[in-house]
Design goal:
The complex is a heterodimer. Chain A has seven helices and twelve strands. Chain A is an alpha+beta fold. The chains are: A alpha+beta, B alpha+beta. At the A-B interface, α1, α3, α4, α5 and α7 of A face β20, α25, β21, α33 and α34 of B.
Chain lengths: 249, 1134
């Protein structure tokens, strides 16, 4: 049946309803789909492109307009102002397009953070964002909209370690402490340090080593507590990565 | 290929004077490979019936599919003429412009070249290029005018018209050669002046019939030009298998007509006709309306043949012709429905193209022994070095070159022009060959044994399958049988894997030529890289020594044993034991020593050969990634192999982690990707546009608006825009005054900083950029000084720094910058970038960055000012801010942040500090929702404050002195964060601009495509800097700048639009500010009139910025749906 037969049903199409409770009553406004989020983020500046009408309803689908008395709760008579209030504070069903674009953006963001923080341990070079995105898709990572991207990025790194060669870029630090604490402290630090690059014993113990950025605080605390403030920790470089372009030969 | 020929070739290799090394050069699709096919067929390697269709030398699959040659490949042929036997080392080269590097590698190894020109298309861009290449390498060209059949069948020209057409083509070719010659003459005008004038005058010489070209022979450049009467031109149709030189006809007719063949030879080509009455050859056929001799005697015959065979299909006439020519045609061919079959059957007997071409080659092209001294000197003197400046011993080698002797005593000199990958299965030693009865019996015994073992071991069915796999590989070669023996011993699955690897491995064979001496299997030789310096080596090892001795390591030199030598036979390789000088060969087992090209010698005095001159430089850049990220190591290995196998491709890993492949063109790119996929990496890969870097900067407020009206006079119309912008840009707690000074307080209300952003002058930015290394050393020096260590500094570096400082002062002039250089606090990002942090705080003194200049360092007592201790936090904040700007998180450039105020509530007692910390923690908690994110946030603060490296020691000291134990550094962390924010807001308070990376683009183009080339340039936002004409040619050299962002596909487009007549080269040059404001909206009345309220017209800067933001997953101000009413939201069934 491809013939279009008109029905007496009038559907609410292209309408997104924004609801808000104010003064114990529910108010609704009728907006266009996919537009409310743009308004909230400031991308859409034309109110007429957002609102279907500036009437405030009690129930949009039934077409019940809110009573004037009830609107007093907003503290203004101006319907447009009330609509703006509801638009900015009301709750709404996020449309699939909006959700999709939001998730996609978060996905990218996570990938960018991961790419910034990590390196390929073999080459000491970062991975590209594209590659991380692909790897994330490979492990079927799903973005959670209500968690911060940074947190999710840390989670992703953990999961990615199983499929590709990746690790947090090491931090290069130099620690110095008096020699009398030397041995004892070193033992304690041993588990936290990845690679010791150089070691120098005289009246002070000086070490240059690579550590995981995650345990920086721990190390710092250890050194400070154990040496009672005589030791020092100094960051030589935040990310131990290769610099410059390399010709493959 | 039979053994007889192989043996013959080995024998011939020793006769240097009978060797011809030559390559076939032409524009794409002019019939090089077809011609090569005909020559190969002459040797019986392929059937002559298939010649022209098989394209024997196109051994790659994609070459066969696309129908173009993509690599140069060699084959050795044997040719006998007049009792002399010749060895012809033929190299077929690709004609497509993308593969001109392959042409260079081929030309280097040859002494002569066959230049093929399409009779219909004439001289094409690549024809010019290859002629130039041949000219530059000093090799002698001969001409083949191919596809004459097209003149008859397709264009349907009469023989008369065809003659004029051919004349025209010949003129064109000679014009190109002439242009090359004149441009060389112009370059060396002083010496060659006389020559040039004589070559001009001689053309007008005499009405006399016989010495028509006599004047030409005397002059220096006579052998440069192509002329049929000189015998260096062949007219051919390779597809139909015929070709001739006018010699053949001259001889034929001299008997028939009784005219001396030498006379006939000279008059057969040109404006001559035969006067039947007086039986004399007269000049001026055209003027008198007579048929020229060439038409009458030569072309008419061919035309008649085509007419009879192809057009009219007149069987009787054909038979008559066949018998009159004395040929035998098989009845099978006569009956064939396709007339072309008959035609080629007749032609290939009557005028076989291989005979014509090969005899010409043997006559006209020099043998390796006749190498010209001039060419030797050119080969031996690298770069701008003159031959005379080379060490004496090296100069002596010139004699070896000239002798080209295969003597035992002669030093071995071999040049490797490229490495090509061969499947190890294709190598002769691994090849299947018929087994003798004995061997078969032996194998059977072995197999039986193994079978028994296997049953005894009682292995699973799966493993038995794998042994079968091993068993089949036994047949392959005795070499692998040892592998399979080992296979039994080990666990099956593992060893099968190794066997597979063994088989699938690519082996590299060096494409080389022996210039002197004899190279033998097992010989020890030196491999000299392109940068090897003989004088250095000679100094290091005084006295003679051979490759067998132990040697000290010399840069760019390696010592190795020759593994195997091959005779190149197109798709196949034949193993050889030794190769005497003058031959083209393949050398195996060199892949570890040779990257792309090298010189192999037994003498260390041998200089590396001059680098190949490539016509096309690689300019098409793509980023390559594996489909599955876990296959990264395979990709890297594959790219290394590709780099070795391709003379022109470049691969590099960028700082961003991208693997970039740079190729000469789209076609080349396709081939490289195919190679990566199927041969080298064997994984799925994807190629994409490389990431384009940008920089962010601020500029002075513009005085003109977008419609060139002065700003400030009209009132702003769009106040709404402005107000909204202002509100969104700055959150609470940030105060911005009208001059762009931003005041920001840390979240614990302890410190307030005031920062202002100022654009740096362009020159200063460039100076900073150029001196990155210097700044880095400076920073290191001051770091040491900070720690109280002393470091002896090189006087030269100090001078450089002083110099740099003076220059910087000269660039920063004007009252705004007074004393600024002295007050520079830091550079950034990464402490050495092109941004400056200025200390404009009143009453705050800190050691300047120039302190390393002061020779006497006054001991700086730790001043107790707390400000000093937080000094580093400010710098860190600045470093962070400059690393990623607010526009699209790209680094800043050319921005000066001047810190104007810095207030701190000092000396907080420990208790209070604690509460403050709590404060800050609670503030953090407000912003973050749950505990977890709080911790991550805190950690973040940590990471940020470390970010900028540097001595945080001072900070730790602070902690040690003042603050309580438990919370490390939230205070300094906060300071860093707020300085960073302050810098960002200060940046935003100024007019922001994007900076785009720019290429300088040098384009060589002929005058007639200039217009179209400009079209492409301007479409891609390019700007022409200047254009000039190259002296002595009709080439223009255009210099332009082009944004990197627009360069993707540029080379391809410009080639397409100019039909290959313009070839661009791109080199990164500088950063340039994009003049349009990415945040621009129309504000004045005029702008409203001009652009409308929304200003939808494309804003280049905004486009770039949004692209970057989208790529990074940052927020892009973009509506999901543009027009609310215009979206379809109904379901399908409603």
């Amino acid at each position: 049946m491809s013939i279009f037969t008109p029905t007496n049903q009038i559907r609410l199409t292209n309408v997104a309803v924004v609801r808000m409770k104010k003064g114990g009553k529910r108010f609704e406004i009728a907006c266009y789909k996919n537009k409310v989020m743009s308004w909230r983020s400031g991308a859409e500046k034309d109110l007429d492109e957002v609102l279907q009408t500036n009437t405030v309803f009690v129930n949009v689908s039934k077409g019940q307009v809110a009573k004037k008395d009830d609107l007093k709760a907003f503290g203004t008579e101006d319907l447009t102002e009330i609509c703006k209030q509801i638009l900015s504070k009301g709750e709404l069903q996020v449309s699939d397009k909006e959700r999709h674009s939001q998730l996609e953006q978060m996905f990218r963001d996570i990938a960018t953070i991961v790419a910034e923080k990590c390196v390929n341990p073999e080459t000491k070079r970062p991975y590209t964002v594209n590659l991380i995105e692909r790897a994330m898709k490979d492990i079927h990572y799903s973005v959670k909209a209500n968690k911060s991207t940074k947190q999710q990025a840390l989670e992703v790194i953990k999961q990615l370690k199983e499929s590709i060669q990746i690790q947090r870029a090491h931090m290069r630090v130099r620690c110095v402490w008096p020699a009398k604490d030397g041995k004892r402290l070193k033992e304690k630090l041993k588990s936290l340090i990845k690679v010791v690059e150089s070691e120098d014993f005289d009246d002070e113990l000086e070490m240059v080593c690579l550590i995981d950025p995650g345990c920086f605080r721990e190390i710092d605390e250890l050194i400070r507590c154990e040496t009672k403030g005589k030791g020092a920790l100094e960051v030589l470089s935040l990310k131990d990565v290769e610099e410059g372009d390399e010709r493959l030969e | 290929m039979g053994h007889t020929i192989l043996e013959k070739i080995i024998a011939l290799q020793k006769k240097t004077s009978n060797i011809r090394n030559l390559c076939i050069l032409a524009h794409v699709d002019h019939g090089k490979t077809t011609l090569a096919d005909c020559l190969v067929a002459n040797n019986g390697i392929i059937s002559s019936r298939l010649a022209g269709k098989l394209r024997y030398l196109d051994s790659r699959e994609d070459e066969q599919i696309r129908g173009i040659t993509m690599k140069s490949s060699g084959i050795s042929l044997h040719y006998t003429t007049g009792g002399n036997e010749y060895l012809i080392n033929l190299i077929d080269s690709p004609g497509h412009v993308d593969f001109s590097s392959e042409v260079s590698t081929a030309v280097r190894l040859c002494d002569g070249a066959i230049v093929v020109v399409d009779a219909v298309e004439g001289v094409c861009p690549q024809t010019q290029v290859v002629l130039r290449q041949a000219w530059l390498e000093n090799i002698r060209p001969v001409l083949v005018i191919n596809k004459i059949d097209r003149l008859i069948v397709e264009l349907k020209l009469t023989s008369q018209e065809a003659f004029t057409h051919l004349q025209k083509i010949l003129e064109q070719v000679n014009a190109v050669t002439g242009a090359l010659f004149t441009s060389k003459v112009l370059e060396e005008r002083a010496e060659k002046d006389a020559d040039a004038t004589s070559s001009c005058t001689e053309n007008s010489s005499g009405d006399q019939v016989y010495d028509w070209s006599a004047g030409l022979e005397e002059t220096d450049d006579s052998d440069l030009y192509f002329s049929p009467d000189q015998g260096n031109v062949v007219f051919a149709s390779a597809i139909d298998g015929w070709g001739f030189r006018i010699h053949q006809f001259a001889e034929m007719y001299s008997q028939k007509m009784g005219i001396r063949s030498s006379v006939l030879l000279k008059t057969l080509w040109g404006d001559f006709y035969i006067n039947a009455k007086v039986k004399k050859i007269m000049k001026g056929a055209q003027a008198k309306g007579k048929k020229p001799l060439f038409v009458q005697l030569v072309l008419d015959n061919i035309w008649n043949l085509y007419d009879a065979v192809v057009t009219r299909r007149d069987k009787e006439k054909v038979e008559k012709m066949v018998t009159s020519l004395g040929l035998k045609v098989m009845s099978r061919d006569l009956r064939h429905s396709d007339p072309r079959v008959l035609l080629s059957a007749i032609c290939s007997q009557w005028l076989p193209v291989s005979q014509a071409v090969l005899s010409m080659v043997c006559e006209k092209l020099p043998s390796p022994a006749e190498i010209v001294a001039e060419r030797v000197e050119k080969l031996m003197s690298v770069g701008a070095r003159r031959f005379d400046s080379l060490p004496e011993k090296t100069q002596e080698l010139k004699k070896a070159f000239l002798d080209c002797s295969a003597d035992e005593m002669a030093p071995v000199i071999v040049f490797v022009s490229k490495m090509f990958a061969v499947d190890s299965k294709a190598l002769p030693q691994n090849k299947k060959r018929p087994l003798t009865q004995e061997e078969i019996a032996q194998r059977r015994e072995l197999a039986r044994q193994r079978h028994g073992e296997r049953q005894a071991a009682n292995q699973s069915t799966e493993t038995s399958g794998s042994v079968d796999a091993g068993g089949t590989s036994i047949l392959a070669a005795p070499a692998t049988s040892s592998v399979t023996d080992a296979l039994c011993a080990q666990t099956e699955a593992l060893s099968v894997k190794t066997a597979v690897e063994e088989e699938g491995k690519e082996q590299f064979v060096a494409f080389a030529r022996v210039y002197s001496g004899v190279i033998r299997k097992g010989q020890k030789v030196f491999v000299l890289g392109p940068k090897f310096d003989p004088s250095l080596a000679l100094r290091m090892l005084s006295g003679g020594c051979s490759a067998t001795d132990a040697l000290p390591t010399i840069p760019h030199m390696a010592c190795c044993t020759v593994d195997s030598l091959y005779l190149l036979m197109g798709r196949e390789l034949e193993e050889l034991d030794e190769v005497p000088s003058g031959n083209v060969l393949g050398i195996g087992g060199m892949e570890e020593f040779i990257l792309k090209s090298a010189t192999i010698s037994t003498s260390l005095a041998c200089p590396p050969f001059t680098p190949l001159n490539f016509e096309a430089t690689p300019i098409v850049r793509v980023a390559v990634e594996p489909k599955h990220p876990s296959e990264m190591p395979k990709l890297v290995r594959g790219m290394r192999l590709l780099n070795q196998a391709d003379p022109c491709a470049e691969v590099l890993i960028q700082e961003t982690g991208e693997h970039v492949l740079v190729t000469a063109g789209e076609m080349h790119l396709q081939r490289c990707l195919d190679d990566l996929r199927e041969r080298f990496a064997k994984i799925e890969i994807s190629a994409s546009k490389p990431i384009i870097p940008f920089r962010e900067t601020v500029v002075r407020p513009p005085t003109l608006d977008m419609v060139n009206e002065e700003l400030g006079k009209q009132q702003k119309v769009a106040v709404i825009h402005q107000v909204k912008e202002e509100q969104t840009k700055y959150p609470e707690g940030v105060q911005v005054d009208s001059t762009g000074l931003v005041m920001l307080t840390t979240s614990n209300k302890m410190a307030t900083v005031g920062v202002r952003a100022i654009p740096l002058p362009e020159d200063a930015t460039r100076l900073l950029e150029d001196n990155v290394e210097l700044i880095r050393t400076m920073v290191q020096l001051s770091l040491f000084a900070w720690e109280g260590k002393t470091l002896d500094i090189n006087q030269k570096i100090l001078e450089n720094i002083q110099d740099f400082k003076v220059k910087l002062e000269s660039h920063l002039q004007g009252h705004k910058w007074r004393g600024a250089v002295e007050r520079i606090w830091a550079f950034g990002p990464r402490r050495c970038g092109p941004n400056i942090l200025l200390n404009n705080i009143e009453g705050y003194q800190r050691p300047s960055v120039w302190q390393c200049l002061k020779c006497v360092k006054e001991k700086e007592k730790a001043e107790a000012t707390t400000l000093r201790d937080f000094d580093n936090s400010i710098v860190s904040g600045f470093q962070l801010a400059t690393l990623s700007g607010p526009m699209c998180e790209e680094p800043l450039m050319g921005v000066c942040f001047s810190v104007e105020t810095w207030d701190m509530k000092l000396s907080t007692p420990p208790a209070q500090q604690d509460s403050v910390d709590e404060n800050s923690v609670s503030q953090c908690a407000e912003t973050s929702n749950d505990n977890q994110s709080l911790s991550s946030e805190l950690q973040d603060v940590h990471e940020t404050d470390m970010s900028t490296t540097g001595s945080n020691r001072s900070r730790s000291r602070v902690e040690a002195m003042g603050s309580s134990v438990d919370c490390y550094g939230p205070y300094s962390g906060q300071l860093i964060a707020s300085v960073k924010e302050a810098c960002r807001y200060a940046f935003q308070a100024k007019p922001q601009r994007l900076m785009a990376a720019m290429y300088t683009c040098e384009i060589m183009a002929t005058a007639d495509v200039l217009g179209r080339m400009y079209g492409v340039l301007s479409k891609r936002e390019g700007r022409v800097l200047h254009e000039e004409m190259k002296e002595g040619t009709d080439m223009f050299i255009i210099k332009a700048v082009l944004p990197v962002a627009e360069s993707f596909g540029f080379a391809d487009e410009i080639r397409k639009r100019t039909s290959g007549l313009a070839c661009p080269q791109l080199v990164f040059s500088h950063w340039e500010v994009i003049s349009s404001d990415p945040f621009w909206v129309p504000t004045t009345e005029e702008e409203y009139l001009h652009f409308g309220e929304k200003a939808d017209s494309a804003n280049q800067a905004l486009k770039y910025m949004n692209a970057v933001r989208k790529r990074k997953g940052l927020y892009v101000e973009e509506k999901i749906v543009e027009h609310a009413e215009k979206q379809r939201t109904l379901g399908k069934n409603k």
